[in-house]
Design brief:
149 residues
């Protein structure tokens, strides 16, 4: 056997040995974060760590959202379309205004959507949307376009 194949196997063997020596930390509960690493005078910790996804990651996956995406889950027929200029999105919630194909059918309704389990779904609709019935935190009401009175 030549030394070239052996040279390729050495890093794999070292990594496999290191992986066998580490104990993975338990998964944190949803909504929690791992504590910040502490500085010590000992050698640096090279063990793998796992953390729960932070809320901003979910937000990046959810917002912004396109009119085409909301149209697909809206349940609207051919007579109404999601207005791309009237989409408000924050965290995992969005509201969208609707544009009627026939102007005589135009109303002032707004649809409410939530991004959950990797997909958007319609929660409801109305002309004056309150946040709390849909689980939307009041502090982002202005961003989403709802307000509790």
């Amino acid at each position: 056997m030549t030394s070239t194949p052996l040279r390729a196997l050495v890093p794999v063997a070292v990594l496999a040995g290191l992986a066998a020596c580490t104990t993975p930390s338990p998964e944190p509960e949803a909504g929690t974060t791992s504590p910040a690493p502490r500085a010590t005078s000992a050698s640096p910790d090279t063990s793998p760590t796992r953390t729960a996804p932070a809320a901003p990651d979910a937000t990046r996956a959810a917002c912004p959202v396109s009119a085409a995406t909301l149209q697909r889950v809206s349940g609207l027929g051919d007579s109404h379309r999601i207005d791309p200029d009237q989409i408000n999105c924050a965290r995992r919630w969005a509201t969208a205004g609707v544009r009627a194909v026939d102007p005589s059918m135009q109303g002032d309704g707004v649809l409410v959507f939530e991004y959950d389990d990797g997909r958007w779904k319609k929660l409801g609709e109305g002309s004056a949307i309150e946040c709390s019935p849909f689980g939307i935190p009041n502090e982002i009401g202005d961003e989403v376009g709802c307000r509790d009175h």
